[in-house]
Each structure stands twice: as structure tokens, then as C-alpha cells.
User: What shape does this take?
Amino acid sequence: MIRLEKITHRYSSPEGGDVVAVENVNLSVAEGKFVALKGPSGCGKSTLLLIAGGLLRPTSGDLEIAGVEPYKLALDERAAFRASRIGFVFQQFHLVPYLDVLDNVLAPSLASGRKDRKRAAALVEQFGLTPRAHHTPSALSTGERQRAAMARALYNKPKVLLADEPTGNLDPENADIVLKQLIAFADQGGAVLMVTHASDASAVADEIITLGHSKD
Ligand SMILES: Nc1ncnc2c1ncn2[C@@H]1O[C@H](COP(=O)(O)OP(=O)(O)OP(=O)(O)O)[C@@H](O)[C@H]1O
Ligand SMILES: [Mg+2]
Assistant: This one.
């Protein structure tokens, strides 16, 4: 479902010079599997997730996500592919600041055309956010924002879920809610790739992949 082959990514900036963020990484996640991605800060975990999510074209390497090679698609096709097949939970959430929780969870319907307020409300409930459904992100705790971002990622029923430290800001009880959702997603045939530092989070994964330090 997720297959990355010899992926290398170099960020170039005129001021700071080049940074090799990801070097020659091979990784795959089969249907129904939950894989945890670990490694020290700066080793390229978020970069790799962005690449897998069709959000950042790698400098070199091949990848296939849900049967598609996203960087071989035209930009609008790639956007449509991302919206329908990939759920992404960003390390910094990227919730829409002027929309309330319910409308944030509904936001992916703009790309898919499948607007279903009942589904959004059910996801809000699933993540224990019903009492905060009509608050905007600035009124939420970090953990609540995290859960809202997870609910939004699931809205379009993706095949692949990419989550960047989804339990990093949560207390054990809330971390447990999120991990159970990720496990359930994999059990239903999805593929999960989760970046995490937490040992209890990686303990529930089918496989743990550790990235080394990048060379720069
Ligand atoms: N836009 C960018 N331009 C230049 N360098 C970048 C950029 N984004 C990330 N980097 C660098 O690439 C490397 C990998 O960054 P990345 O965010 O993927 O690491 P990470 O493993 O997710 O770290 P963390 O655990 O702290 O979130 C780091 O050295 C980082 O400074
Ligand atoms: Mg990161």
C-alpha cells in the first residue's frame, strides 16, 4: 500500500546551504499494517512523511501509494488523489483557524465533494470532541487540536493514514484514544505510518522502522 524505494531528499536554501534530510530510504507498509517510524530529531521523519503524502517531491527515488505513483500525476490529479486516498495528521496540525471543530473535520469534503455533516459529527464524537464542536482551534487545548486533526484525516475514508507524532501532545488516556483509532484503521485494511518518539505508541505497531541521522 505504501512503498518507498531509495528515497533521498535534499533541501536547498541559498542562505543555509543544502541539507540532506533523507538519504536512500526504503520502506513499505502493507495493507492492514501499522508501522511506527522512529529516530532522533532532525533525522528526516517529517520530510519522509510529506514525501509519502504526495506533498513534497523527493530529490530522487520511487514511490507508490495505494497503487499510484503520486509524482507522476499532474498537480490537480495529485491533489484529488491525496484528498481521496491519504489522511494526513501534521506535526503542527494545520487546522483552519477560522473554522470550528466540526467544520474543520468537514473541510476535506471540499476536495472530495462528499459533504456529510452526520459523518463529521460522528468523528467528532469518536474523538471525544462533541462538547467542543463549535469552538475554533485557538480555543482548544493542544491535545484537543491533535484529536480534531485526526478526525479530519479520517473524514474522506482514506486508504493510507500518515500521522506525525499523533500522540506527542496527549496524556495517556487521550493517547490511547488515538492509538485505538489507528489500530482500528489498520484492522479495517488501511495502512498506517506513524512517526513517534513514544515507546508505548510504537509498542502497538506491527513493525518499528528506525531512521538514522542524516548526513549533511
Ligand atoms: N524547508 C526546509 N529547508 C531546509 N532544511 C529543512 C527544511 N525542513 C526540514 N529541514 C531539515 O531537514 C532535516 C530533517 O527534518 P525533519 O523535519 O524531516 O526531521 P524530523 O525527523 O521530523 O525531526 P523532529 O523529530 O524534530 O520532528 C533537519 O535537519 C531539518 O533542519
Ligand atoms: Mg518531525
Remarks:
- The radius of gyration is 17 Å.
- The chain has one domain: 2-210.
- Strands lie at 2-13, 17-29, 34-38, 60-65, 86-89, 160-164, 191-195, 207-210.
- The CA atoms of residues 3 and 100 lie 35 Å apart.
